[in-house]
Amino acid sequence: MKNPKVDTLFNPLQVGEIQIENRIIMSSLTRMRCDKETKSPNDLVAQFYSQRASAGLIMTESTFISERSQSWPGCPGIMDQTQVEGWKKVIQAVHNKKGKIALQIWHSGRATHSLLQQGLQPWGPSQIGIKGPNQILNIPHEIPHEMNLDDIQLVKNQFRNGAQLAKEAGFDAIELHGANGYLIDQFLKSNSNQRQDEYGGTIQGRCKFCLEIIDELISIFGKGRVGIKVSPIGRFNDMYDEDPIKLYTYLFQELDKRQIAFIELMNDKDEENAYNHGLPSSQSQTNNLFEKLRNSFKGIIIGNVGLTGEIAAQLIQTGLIDAASFGMPYISNPDLVERIRYNFPLTEANPDTFFEGEHIGYIDYLPFQQ
Ligand SMILES: Cc1cc2nc3c(=O)[nH]c(=O)nc-3n(C[C@H](O)[C@H](O)[C@H](O)COP(=O)(O)O)c2cc1C
């Protein structure tokens, strides 16, 4: 029997130029199972996404745009024709099941290490390294090279090139990874961006890089197929902003002027406060993020972090969000849409198989059997 409390999730939604059949979005999940040599998605990856095609929209795992922008082995790129061909297989597999799929385009900035990118020093907005060890190597993070104006132009060109290839591959949309302490987020936030030039200082300055890249993506995909993921109060990768509501109110208003299709808005995660280093907790900065930012953007807001079907439906009914994205639940519930609709129990994911490996813990989670 259908769960009447989640009916709202099954009202179709116009997201920019894309019509989605339900409001359950699969959020981006790095699984490090792409081909390590070519850095392209393989048949296994295509199968993973195709199993999850009943989501209203799938966001791919973070996908890098240059050698310097990667940080996890086994992640895919969008830099060359081999990768385009790999992505075409994924897109075809999802489209065959009438699903929709957006590429999440990404630059890791300072959140990587020269040992993970062929000896290249990480880049960032300022010479401020992440406190704490690199997650993959378990050694201290390096101090990034502070990007000069030529570096900024180069990275903008690389985003544009990546978007062009993503378009060629046939993605329905593109999502800029502006969350979780990667390069775009590093430019936005006050603790990682202490530049004195036009790309820092004021809130307008800190948002400039992000907005210029959004403009590049719009120039390739059109405004109705561009979105961004943000984490205003997230602490992952040692992030902190002194006034996140003021910063993101400005950013949302600027994104609204550009009429992009969607913003995927991450709420906080309690456990991330482990990265606080004595700073105020994310909860103390705001406990009602969706309410504070809703009115600054008229397009689609996709709520994220720790949601269930019923909570998501309530948030949509009260108008705080328009759709909801799910990360962890999608690892082990390929049929999450059906499980939410019929109130079937969810399968727990095994964290040991989140990253790397092959099919185990990846494509062997099956749809619910009654
Ligand atoms: C294994 C794993 C990999 C993830 N990879 C990415 C990623 O590549 N890009 C991204 O934006 N978020 C990534 N996330 C975060 C999720 O997309 C999502 O924002 C987060 O898990 C919160 O949603 P949830 O509470 O529904 O899990 C990842 C999360 C997990 C658990």
From TrEMBL:
Instruction: Give residue ranges for domain NADH:flavin oxidoreductase/NADH oxidase N-terminal.
Output: 9-345
The record ties this protein, via CDD domains, to:
OYE_like_FMN
Q: Which keywords does the record carry?
A: Oxidoreductase
**Essential cofactor(s):** FMN
Q: Name one GO molecular function term.
A: oxidoreductase activity, acting on the CH-CH group of donors, NAD or NADP as acceptor
Superkingdom to which the source organism belongs: Eukaryota
A Pfam family hit: Oxidored_FMN
Of the GO CC terms on this record, one is: cytosol
Cite the InterPro entries for this sequence: OxRdtase_FMN_N (IPR001155), Oye-like (IPR045247)
Family (UniProt): Belongs to the NADH:flavin oxidoreductase/NADH oxidase family.
Name used for this protein in its record: NADH:flavin oxidoreductase/NADH oxidase N-terminal domain-containing protein
Q: Which organism is it from?
A: Paramecium pentaurelia
